[in-house]
């Protein structure tokens, strides 16, 4: 709807050397209601060197109701070097009702260096109706694998009585947290074996 000033550098209408100030209306992940000021560095609408301030309206995992201020460093809208403050509305495991303030490390919205405070609204094992404050360690080549501590508690009853209780608890520990007695504290049925 407004003026689009650009200088194309390849066979792609969205690749620019100079800033592109425009209001996109198409049904793509880069469609915006507000002005998108950017300098593209590759043949992808979401690859920027400078800050991209936008409000996406597309049906995409990176769809936002509020503005997304970020510096993209790869060919996905969710790969940022700086803070991404957003409210996702997509049908996606990372969809939130509240704001997700994080620093993304790679092409997944759930891979963060900093704390991710969110309220999930999807049918997902990590979904909660209350606020979940955590440091995500998603399955990503640049993210360390978590340490998994399993505690199995068996309540053995006499032969005349049925086995009534079997508890299996999993606790995911950050890579930096050592496996100590304190690290498994708070799990009622956890046992610290020698």
From TrEMBL:
Sequence segments annotated as region (Disordered): 1-116
Compositionally biased intervals (Polar residues): 10-32, 58-82
Name recorded for this polypeptide: Uncharacterized protein
Organism: Pleurodeles waltl (Iberian ribbed newt)
């Amino acid at each position: 709807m407004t003026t689009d000033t650009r200088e194309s550098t390849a066979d792609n209408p969205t690749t620019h050397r100079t800033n592109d100030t425009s209001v996109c209306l198409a049904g793509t992940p880069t469609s915006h209601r507000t002005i998108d000021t950017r300098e593209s560095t590759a043949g992808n609408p979401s690859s920027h060197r400078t800050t991209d301030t936008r409000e996406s309206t597309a049906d995409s995992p990176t769809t936002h109701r509020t503005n997304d201020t970020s510096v993209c460093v790869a060919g996905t809208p969710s790969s940022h070097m700086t803070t991404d403050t957003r409210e996702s509305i997509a049908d996606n495991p990372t969809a939130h009702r509240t704001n997700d303030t994080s620093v993304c490390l790679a092409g997944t919205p759930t891979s963060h260096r900093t704390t991710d405070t969110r309220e999930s609204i999807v049918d997902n094992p990590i979904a909660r109706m209350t606020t979940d404050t955590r440091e995500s360690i998603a399955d990503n080549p640049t993210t360390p694998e978590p340490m998994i501590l399993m505690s199995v508690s068996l309540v053995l009853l006499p032969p005349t009585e049925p086995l009534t209780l079997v508890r299996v608890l999993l606790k995911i520990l950050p890579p930096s947290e050592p496996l100590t007695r304190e690290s498994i504290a708070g799990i009622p049925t956890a046992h610290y074996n020698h």
